[in-house]
Amino acid sequence: MAIDTALIRRSWSLVEPRQSKVAADFYALLFSRYPQVRGMFPAAMDLQRDRLLHALTRVVLSLGEIEGLSAYLGQLGRDHRKYGVVPEHYPMLGACLITAMRVNAGGNWLPAYDQAWAAAYDLVARVMAEAAERDSHTAPPYWTATVVGHELRSHDLAVIVLRPSHPYLFQAGQYTTVQTPQWPRVWRPYSIANPPREDNLISLHVRVVPGGWVSTALAHRTAVGDTVYLGPPRGSMVLSRSTASHLVFIAGGTGLAPLKAIIEETAWMHERPSVDLFHGVRLRSQAYDLPDLLRLREQHGRMRFVLAVSDDPAHPPRESVADTIARHRLPADSEIFICGSPGMVQACTARLLRLGIPGHNVHMEAVDEGGLALPWAAPSVGR
Ligand SMILES: NC(=O)C1=CN([C@@H]2O[C@H](COP(=O)(O)OP(=O)(O)OC[C@H]3O[C@@H](n4cnc5c(N)ncnc54)[C@H](O)[C@@H]3O)[C@@H](O)[C@H]2O)C=CC1
């Protein structure tokens, strides 16, 4: 059945102002009708509710662009294998979702909206389930990994090296999701800080964030020899086949991780591009990876490295990384990769546009703050 995007959007606009209530009602309905699925979700549901809403918004907004949506949903379907989602779960969710929207529409819900949503949901579920099924022939739902390196580089930052039990195939720049034994069913995304290696090791940069369960567990309650779990690799911030001759990388804090992986990959290229890396930190003491970056610069041979310190009275000039890039001459045809907090990414992107860099040359990971999925999605990277 064709998707009636106009009906979907009209009906969504009815419930959008009450979306938090929609999410709460959805989970209440789901758990009362199907108590057997409660165990698949974490004990605390706050983040989960936000994720559902982000995912819904994303699907509603991109229903017209079926190609992009299919790639997104396929990735989502593969990722949901780690939660134990099987095809039989999808209809349960669909029915509860439509009911939750209907009861929150203030009596304005039309029968046609039910049909439009049923058709849209059917398509979403089919794409996700098919991708998951295809994936099940070649990859496990999740990987067990042993911690083989754990280095606290400051009180709130750890670099962790993991050895997945089975080959973990990913591309430089992608991220994984991590579950620790301390927090069952709570998965958090972290970028992989190295390109694929023959020894299958992967390295993560973990900043402890206030209230960050997984980041605290990884940094302070994890040691060499412990086991953690990894979801499948995700993300599209990777090098294209036709890499430009000059690449610029702009990192904010631990947003360095995926950019370092891509730079390291370019170091081995036959015709390696020249590279600029700008690393923005608040305090000089937060330049947690300096020795490694200097080594990488040495090994690369065509890499310039600039540290931008924004808030350290002992290290003038206090300059934001956006101001730093503006001071350096960037060729207009540079391919640019940005990774960091949403505010930092936004500030840098705006500055680049003002500097005349075309938007299509700027890459960043659209790590939706929780919006990667239907109910079981992942939050922003690095929590
Ligand atoms: N750990 C990981 O694997 C990854 C982490 N991230 C994200 O990167 C961020 C890293 O955070 P931290 O390490 O705490 O770095 P941070 O937030 O302390 O920021 C580092 C740099 O970004 C600049 N900055 C921060 N907010 C800004 C704003 N609103 N406008 C302009 N500049 C701003 C600072 O001035 C500084 O130069 C987090 O949001 C995390 O989710 C992204 C990808 C991977």
From TrEMBL:
Cofactor list: FAD; heme b
User: Which Pfam families does this chain map to?
Assistant: FAD_binding_6, Globin, NAD_binding_1
Q: Give the keywords, sorted.
A: 2Fe-2S, Heme, Iron, Iron-sulfur, Metal-binding, NAD, NADP, Oxygen transport, Transport
Give the EC number: 1.14.12.17
Q: Does the keyword Ribosomal protein apply?
A: no
Which reaction(s) are listed as its catalytic activity? 2 nitric oxide + NADPH + 2 O2 = 2 nitrate + NADP(+) + H(+); 2 nitric oxide + NADH + 2 O2 = 2 nitrate + NAD(+) + H(+)
Protein name according to UniProt: nitric oxide dioxygenase
Q: Which organism is it from?
A: Spongiactinospora rosea
